[in-house]
Amino acid sequence: MIPPLPRPKRKNPVLRTRAPLLPPGPRSRAALGLTAAAALGRFELQECAACGAVQYPPREACHRCLGVELPWRRQSGEGELIAETTIHHSHDTFFRERLPWRLGMVRLDAGPTVVAHLHGGCGTAPARVLVGARLDKAGQGVLVAFPPEEVPNMADDRQLREMTCDPKYRKVLITDGKTAVGQALVRAVCAAGAELVWVGHAEPWKKLPGLEQIDAMPGVSLVPLDLTDSRAVREIAGEIGGKVDILINNAEVHRTQGIASRSGIEVARAEMDVNYFGLLRLAQEFAPAMRARAADGQSSATAWVNLLSVFALSSFPGQGTYSASKAAALSLSQTLRAEMRPAGIRVIDVFPGPLDDEWNQTLPPPKVSPEALARAIVAALRDGVEDVYPGEVAAEWFARWRENPKALERELASQS
Amino acid sequence: MSTDTLAALAADLLSGRIRVIDLTQTLAPEFPQIVLPPEFGQCWPFRIEEVSRYDERGPAWYWNNFSCGEHTGTHFDAPIHWISGRDLPNNATDTVPVQHLVGRACVIDCSREAAADPDYLLTRERVLEWERHHGRIPPRAWLLMRTDWSKRTDPVAYQNFDETGQHTPGPASDLVRFLVEERDVIGFGSEAIGTDAGQGYHLRPPYPCHYFMHGAGRYGLQCLTNLDRLPPTGAVIFCAPLKIKNGSGSPIRALALVPG
Ligand SMILES: [Zn+2]
């Protein structure tokens, strides 16, 4: 039912690259709850604390009892497609370029009837569907009705691809191939069908295991890239910046110092120079070209991934300077997201707990394996989410941070 | 007499009878810096950020800010750099006597040996052999070890690492003691990234050139280039470090005067 995504032809260089457009969408403040959940890959609606009624569209007071306590709760999304329509004409500039477009009404088993974009795998009404929340190109939470069972080429659906950042047939830059995480990422995006993968590596004279095997993989090219060297970043952006569809910034300096455990600022500065200023250098040099190519056909520029840490939310004092550098990077990433959103490019922040790497050698498990982290990043691209907390430690700390940041701060201090 | 010497020197410089040779590598971000295990503190590589270039950041002027370590690029090691020299008088970049910073250089060509063996250690015997051809090393002269290592323009080949560390030529331990105690050299200069060999950590004592030279108040020069353009004897070199307060070393613009 869903035709497989064709391998894109090479770009015709005499044609103008189309400018990116966004779907319409200022939403009410209440509706931002849907977006916030969709950014995490969750489908949530408000549920009345007094009578339990599920609300749609989002609102300030319960449609049944006028109760005002309407917390957001995860929804299963199961429901019945009761009506559908295919739009062939639109005055909206975004949809005009993407017609025809299928929409439907879904009566959720939980109660409300919602308007949803229809995945091509959905049967004609009436049919069982599974509704999920996605971010559209404008970064707004929208609902998508999927077939209840997996269908072939599910991710290749034309409408869905407007909301996701699937690596298939896309060109990917991974900024550091010398780490286990970088190498796992190369393998994962290649397995996900990436057309071409550039892999950055700094200080070429330092031989680290695994890089030669990565270099030998088909479709993979090593590029010299040291995020501390502004000129080098500019040079490589000049060479490949106009081709990168997905940039995954995994380069980081990770040391395990607090304030008192090491004198001087050298280590902290090295962390900042890569983890914060490195992101700034990359963003200044790569973001403009990516924004300009956000509507460049099937394999347009689509996503920017930053490897942060759950310590960006709240300091882990045993790794205090690292935490601070990741907090700085998180703040900068939010700015990058604001600057990329007008072009429809998704900025994905990844917040793992401690990785199973040499610098966390003395931390007890559970620790996130490089392979699990890479899988989580590919999944985030496919789902088009904004924030990912891979691994049980990250998931738990994120939940506690949402619940009570001060309590988490105390707990992290006592664990250090 | 000295006035005449300087006047003659100036005239010879003007006429080209004395030529100035640049012994300095270009300070650039891609030039490699010394590597230590990652748990140790690290020397900064050379980095440069543009401040303005006739643009909105400064309409009529171009300039940069740069950063680097005291031991980045072609540089000078002061005695205070090493623990053996830490208590000597006048042992830092701001206090070394400037009279020491201009002097004669003896150049030993080890390029063939270094090409055959990247771990080549220059020995006392090899220096004595050199003296049979070129005369005894005069007191307070520099001994410069020519290896043509600077011709390795690929940073990977220049650093020459494998799983057992770095493989670059340098002096043997007994040679360093001989140079200090029996030849009274002012210092030792190398084309590689350190005055000691890449495997110098495994010598006795570890890093003998640093240990003995700095312990005796002598100096080191590293990352030199163009040593193949110097005569075995007769060159005069200039190697003044920046006057960093209590500095352990400094990038330099090393120059040599040679007969034209
Ligand atoms: Zn209610």
- What string, H for helix and E for strand, traces the elements of chain A in order? HEEEEHEEEEHEHEHEHEHHEHEHEHH
- CATH architecture field of the largest domain in chain A: 3-Layer(aba) Sandwich
Q: Which strand order does the major sheet of chain B show?
A: 1-15-13-5-7-11-12-4-14
Chain pair forming the biggest interface: A-B, 15 and 19 residues
Q: State the oligomer.
A: heterodimer
Number of domains of chain A: 2
| Terminus-to-terminus distance of chain A | 54 Å
CATH fold-level topology of chain B: Glucose Oxidase, domain 1
Low-confidence runs of at least 5 consecutive residues of chain B: none
Shape of chain B: globular
CATH superfamily of the largest domain in chain A: NAD(P)-binding Rossmann-like Domain
What is the beta-strand fraction of chain A? Answer: 15-25%
Number of helices of chain A: 12
Q: If you consult CATH, what is the topology of the largest domain in chain A?
A: Rossmann fold
SSE blueprint:
The complex is a heterodimer of chains A (416) and B (260).
Chain A: H1 32-39, E1 44-47, E2 54-55, E3 72-74, E4 78-87, H2 93-96, E5 101-108, E6 113-118, E7 127-135, E8 141-146, H3 158-161, E9 171-174, H4 180-191, E10 196-201, H5 211-215, E11 220-224, H6 230-240, E12 246-249, H7 266-275, H8 277-292, E13 303-307, H9 320-340, E14 346-350, H10 370-383, E15 387-388, H11 392-403, H12 405-415
Parallel strand pairs in A: 6-8, 9-10, 9-12, 10-11, 12-13, 13-14, 14-15
Antiparallel strand pairs in A: 1-2, 1-3, 4-5, 4-7, 5-6, 7-8
Helix pairs in contact in A: 4-10, 6-8, 7-9, 8-9, 11-12
Chain B: H1 2-15, E1 18-22, E2 47-55, E3 58-67, E4 75-77, E5 102-109, H2 111-116, E6 121-122, H3 124-134, E7 142-146, H4 155-159, E8 161-162, E9 165-166, E10 170-171, H5 173-181, E11 187-190, H6 208-215, E12 219-222, E13 235-238, E14 249-251, E15 255-259
Parallel strand pairs in B: 5-7, 6-10, 7-11, 11-12
Antiparallel strand pairs in B: 1-15, 2-3, 4-12, 4-14, 5-13, 8-9, 13-15
The structure holds zinc ion.
